[in-house]
Amino acid sequence: MPDQLLYAAEVMINGLMAGVLYALVALGFVLIFKASGIFNYAQGVLALFAALTLVGLQEGQVPFAHLINAAFGTEVHHFGWQLPSIVAILLTVGVMILLAVAIERFILKHLVNQEPIILFMATIGLAYFLEGFGDVMWGADVKTLDVGLPQGGSFWIEEKTAVLGGDGFYGFFIDKLDIVATVVAAILVISLTLFSQYSKQGRALRAVADDHQAALSVGISLRFIWVLVWSIAGFVALVAGIMWGAKSGVQFSLSLIALKALPVLMLGGFTSIPGAIVGGLIIGVGEKLFEFTIGPMIGGATENWFAYVLALLFLVFRPQGLFGEKIIERV
Amino acid sequence: MKDTVEPYVTEDGRTIGGVLMELKHITLKFGGVVAIKDISFDIREGEIRAIIGPNGAGKSSMLNVISGFYTPTEGEVWFEGKKRPQMRPYKVAQQGIARTFQNIALFSGMSTLDNIMTGRITHMSAGLFSQAAWWGKAEREETANREAVEKIIDFLEIQHIRKTPVGRLPYGLQKRVELGRALAAEPRLLLLDEPMAGMNVEEKEDMSRFILDVNDEFGTTIVLIEHDMGVVMDLSDRVVVMDYGKKIGDGPPEEVRANPDVIEAYLGVSHD
Predict the structure, then answer these.
(1) Which residues form the ABC transporter domain (chain B) (predicted)?
(2) Which of A74, A158, A244, A258 has a Cα at 20 to 30 A from A283?
(3) Considering the entire predicted model, what is its pTM?
(4) Partner residue opposite B121 with nearest CB, options A213, A219, A222
């Protein structure tokens, strides 16, 4: 096989893996959008907050340390313990559920029957609040997140694939972390789909997304469903936070990955879980391949804008996305 | 409470049961606007109770009070012999009060089958984990619920649209699916808000037949709001007439029809 083609294949595989990470973030958006018609601007910050909390708990950081020190003149910063990853993850899940309850209690409950745009604004507020809150709680420094996920290139794959090419070809370089992310995303998507299609709560969730009044009339508690949805979104954010955090450290720019989810959603459709996955993969592969093939001709750095241009094209020709529900207005 | 009320014999000679729900001095205000003014009436087990009146008389508000969507400003709602505390609509639904809406409120993205299946949510109890594993209880429950739903689909003669997303159905069929969803809850009390609004004659006849059959076969107590006097007279055992938020008549259809206040409200006879 010519080496050029092999390189392209390697780029494509890496694109797929990157796409999985985009899809993970997009998934959180889709969940909340499906269940409440809200475009949750805070999803990226949720991922950041989850990752910060996870690192903080794991390292035994004292929450609000700066605040406490400033107020009482103390010098606290760490409790001096190191929690096992699994305990820290479970505790973080607990924190995300508490956060969901708080969001319902302090925001959503007061905005029942409001226009979607109002709720959207509320999530913008929530995003900035959470970003600041995370800062005050855990500090603004860049943290390394290590929950024991395998990292670095997989030598096994490199060795096995090296034979495909000639002398100058050293095999595919694939990050183990990306493989883990792919497996995790697959499990997450399958279980979420099963949950929403076949469980009582999943059915209730779809009902609430469709019509609040009707949902109430068949005995569904809106408040419970909202807490449930935001808990799940928080959980997905945690998974995304772990993957991105392990890859590039936990820092406040993590909240910007939410922006990459936007084109993914435009491609896949805002209401489709499989759409989020396929959209993520297309964008991942598309931007890597574009950079590989066209990039050198036009000076590179195409990854920054390629996804958005693709999304724009989709908006023109298929505004509901690949898998989104067709927009029908009955007159 | 039931034993203290003597049985009530309807015009066509049917005996209907004791009091299922009693509304005592219900008043409902929105700010300065009085939607319902000191209305009392009862609903007996197994009857078809109609609420009629001109537009804006407060009929739908009354239904919303019964189903918990509105909390009355004053007055009490007694259900099954007990005073009902202030209650959220989903709790009311869990108590066995199902309803349909004047402007159809269906889950338009779901199929007919799924819509009616949601009606059975109050009959599902298996926990998240047994559902996730699709274990014994969850599986049995799902099967039982599916059977109940299939029966309703048969009953309402909508087999041909089982898998169709309801958003695509014509209006008359949507109304029928909505009735099906309410029936799926096996309600003690079924509230129908203008079940025949906007239908053609044929559809109206179908719907009337279904309502009578529901009442007859399942013994479901029904409260319905309707504009069409003819329909009301044919269907109902007893009628409450409302006008400007007040009750102006209450009794069997024939009696109500002869009531001068009612005639005035409907035909606008002047007092001069």
Answers:
(1) 21-269
(2) A158
(3) 0.80
(4) A219
